[in-house]
Amino acid sequence: MSNSPVLHDELLSMPPHLRMVEDMLIPDIETLITEDDEPVDNVFSAKQQRFLVETLYANTALWNPDSVPFIADANVGVFISPTEPPLVPDAFLSMNIKMPEVFDYTKIRSYFVWVFAKTPDIVVEIVSNRKGGEMKRKMTEYAKLHIPFYAVFDPFDVFRGERLQIYTLNGTGYKPLQDFWMEDIGLGLRLWEGEYEGMHSEWLRWCDVKGNVLQSGKELSGAAITRAEQEKARAEQEKARAEQEKARAEEEKARAQSALSELDVERDKSRRLAEKLRALGLSPDDV
User: DSSP class of residue 193?
Assistant: First the structure.
């Protein structure tokens, strides 16, 4: 299994004379079940899937500072070959993929491993019941695909154990990851209690190495509004302080002018008194 980070651009935009080769590598979607149109997810799982995908795209500059191209999606088939049924993780992330400027979504409607030249870096499964096979069948199948990380979130406590379990590939199987942090992809996973899309619950969220969760678009927007309001409040405070300083300066100026006026009055009185003394033949200095 190739794990090359290079996308086969030539497979996505072949000239007409190579149409036969293209048809071999990108099979007719009529022969593949890429969508079954069966709404089988519960409301919480659907929201959780969106939460995981949305936060990755909303925080690209934060968790992916080198702008490494990636694909993240939810409930999309991962096809290992045109002849085998796909695996459909609740969410996945595949990094180091360079998307072409022109991408034919009418033909590449799922994650075809032979087109993208690699398997996802991490898949996430959300447990709804014991029929999903997250801890046995799916774990074995993902290990066969050599997917580096596998996470299982059990929000309904179906397995009566840890609600979040993260595994790392070890040879041909998975072993539990002893930490929340996945160094190879620069992300962590942790549980967080709060509200998303109007639902208060315990959610699975991506986080940084310190455990700080990546914010959703709404959270980022709210944070931006809060920062703008704080900046506005600071600006108004600065304006108020400046006006107070200006008022104090004007008061000081007025007091100084008043003091000068009083001094001028006293000087005028002294001058008139001196003139009267001189008129009487007396020296003001002798008085």
Answer: E
| Terminal alpha carbon distance of the chain | 116
Round to whole Å and give the CA distance between 52 and 50.
6
Instruction: Please state, rounded to an integer, the average pLDDT across all residues of the chain.
Output: 81
Lookup: tokens for 121: 């870096």
259: helix, strand or coil: helix
- H or E element that contains 256: helix 217-279
Contact between 189 and 207 (Cβ < 8 Å): yes
Reading the block at residue 218, the tokens are 């709404």
Here the tokens at position 66 are 């080198």
Domain boundaries, the chain: 9-214, 227-284
Return the structure tokens found at 203.
């959610």
Cβ contact 117:4 at 8 Å: yes
CATH number of 9-214: 3.90.1570
Instruction: Compute the average pLDDT of residues 213-229.
Output: 71
**pTM, 2 dp:** 0.69
Instruction: Dump pLDDT digits (tens) for 229-249.
Output: 566 667 667 776 877 888 788
CB–CB of 8/104 below 8 Å?
no
Q: Provide φ and ψ at 201, rounded to 5°.
A: -165, -175
pLDDT in tens, 93-130: 999 886 666 667 777 788 989 888 899 999 999 999 88
